[in-house]
Design a protein that fits this description.
By secondary structure, the protein is mainly beta. The chain is built from one helix and seven strands, in the order H-E-E-E-E-E-E-E.
């Protein structure tokens, strides 16, 4: 594992432990691409990936590459280390990002917001996905301001 970095939540895993419904997401992440399953029946984007569409219960999906950009929908800044191993990384920000390229209210993803002063983050800020490769099989998506 890498050394602790301020603002970057440490990853405890070295493998995504994916199943058939999530493996394409993790494969693309290793390539630095953000892909999301889209229901072939109703067009709903499904995040997190799962075996059934939550809108129509259909089980067929196509994987769509998104631009990897979005806006901060909600966030929190953690200032108190909830565990001793987090002492070196606080404060850090975690947020919900509304992804560009998705329908309606949009698909959203939760992630660590990095490469910024946590006190400067605002709802509506534009961000881009950055992939933190933590092992040969695992790249963690995080978000950075654009």
């Amino acid at each position: 594992m890498t050394e602790p970095q301020p603002g970057v939540y440490p990853v405890a895993l070295s493998d995504p432990y994916a199943d058939e419904s999530t493996q394409p997401f993790w494969d693309a992440a290793l390539e630095g691409r953000l892909v999301v399953p889209q229901c072939v029946n109703c067009g709903t984007f499904i995040l997190p990936p799962q075996p059934f569409c939550f809108e129509c219960q259909h089980q067929e999906f196509e994987w769509v590459e998104l631009p990897g950009t979005g806006t901060i929908y909600s966030f929190t800044v953690v200032r108190h280390p909830l565990s001793p191993h987090l002492q070196e990384v606080v404060p850090y920000a975690s947020g919900v990002v509304e992804l560009d390229g998705t329908q309606g209210a949009g698909a959203r993803m939760i992630g660590n917001i990095v490469d910024c002063d946590p006190d400067s983050i605002r709802i509506g800020d534009p961000v881009r996905v950055v992939f933190d490769r933590v092992s040969e099989t695992f790249a963690v998506p995080r978000f950075a301001p654009t």
